[in-house]
Amino acid sequence: MYDHYEVPEFTARETRLMARRALNGKWGRGLLPMLIIIALLVIPELLEYGTLMFGSGIDWTDPDSLMKYLQSSSEGRTGVLPDIMAAAAFFITGPLSVSAGALSLRILRNEGFTTETAFTGFKRYFQSFFVYVQVWIFSMLWSLITVLPGTAVLTAAALEGSPVLLAAGVLVFVACLVGYIYLILRYSMSYFIAADNRELPATQAVAYSVTLMKGRAGKYFLLQLSFIGWVILASLPMAAGIAFFASGIQSESIPLKVAGIGLAIIGIVAITLLELYMYTANAVFYSAVSGNFGIARPAASAEAVQDYTEEIPEEKVQLPEDAMISEENEESSDRSADQAASPAEEPDHGGDDPDSSPENTEDEQ
Question: Which is nearest to 133 in space by CA: 192, 82, 205, 73?
């Protein structure tokens, strides 16, 4: 296990700064593992939309035709493929989420990672899967307790037609929605905990996440909100690519299709890098609230934290005194180890030295 220290919690800006410092020189190597994770997560949806566009006989560029298709029953639309894809997503989302957590933690801790890191969660499948199952069950239960009643109140108020009741209904709905978000955010550290503790049971990982997030859900929410500008910016190439490609299909223009595909590829890369950035920032948040920066030696732990916090106030990166080992102590301990490892020197007897023998003495005279 790693050593744990009391590490002060950082602001959203400081957390992002530490994430960027951790990713320095690793953006390229981290791109492919994260791209694999994202691809495996969205493949079920892509297959479903592929059936929508090519397997249903519907002209998806025609709004009226598309609306009729969406209003039809799910059985009549796409058969069993959506059900198969939904089941596949259910069984792989947990392991892939743990893999993303493991990748970001390795980046933060300057540990080695490869494309195989994208499949870390599958190596501990049952732990990863049951963490996801618990989070999913709790999310559904909390939505029934909060979002559903709020929606019912808002709908009833809207049907009454009274502005006062409608305003009250909106307030109730917003309050329920905020409560739901708070309750859900308590489970946000579950995948990082599972990635960090492979032997920990899934129930304990989820429970530990709830413990860590007590009083910190608001800070975590603000951290996610701080990425909204990057989310919009990274989404622009993908949105433009889809628009260009759709226009190319309607006008049968090959240049527009090529431009759309090119922009879509740029958008995929941008979104993948953003996900890598966000996951690493979340790994910083987890490391701070858990006091675990994943370094076994205390001196290395202090160095690991300070490597990413050069522009952060010193009072926020101070570790306990016993976590600091001075260079002098390290050098003295190294010298002691060398002396203990080397054989004892024998005393110097003049007669044993060939240069000090009588014959050599006479020659010199």
Answer: 205
